[in-house]
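Please decode residue identities from the backbone states below.
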């Protein structure tokens, strides 16, 4: 099971607390995790990725095992620690302002 940590506003929208656990087929990639997340929580469709382009929304970032995965290909395999459920995939909302 892959654990995904969502930012507060997405947890509220999906009516979940803390981590979401997802079963994902091999190879586990960012795309397959987001596909599984949106299938299980359809209210999240379009909040993490654009409906049409499937590109990450500008103020969201993806982290795992201390690495920023935000600019990696969505088809890059996730780190083994995430796949084995030892580390979560973090989806963080960026803060902007002046």
């Amino acid at each position: 099971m892959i654990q995904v940590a969502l930012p507060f506003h997405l947890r509220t929208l999906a009516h979940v607390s803390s981590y979401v656990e997802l079963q994902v087929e091999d190879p586990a990639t960012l795309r397959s995790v987001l596909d599984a997340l949106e299938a299980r929580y359809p209210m999240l469709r379009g909040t993490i990725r654009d409906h049409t382009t499937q590109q990450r929304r500008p103020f969201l970032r993806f982290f795992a095992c201390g690495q920023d995965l935000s600019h990696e290909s969505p088809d890059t395999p996730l780190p083994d620690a995430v796949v084995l459920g030892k580390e979560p995939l973090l989806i963080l909302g960026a803060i902007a302002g002046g």
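Observation: The two ends are 39 Å apart (CA to CA).
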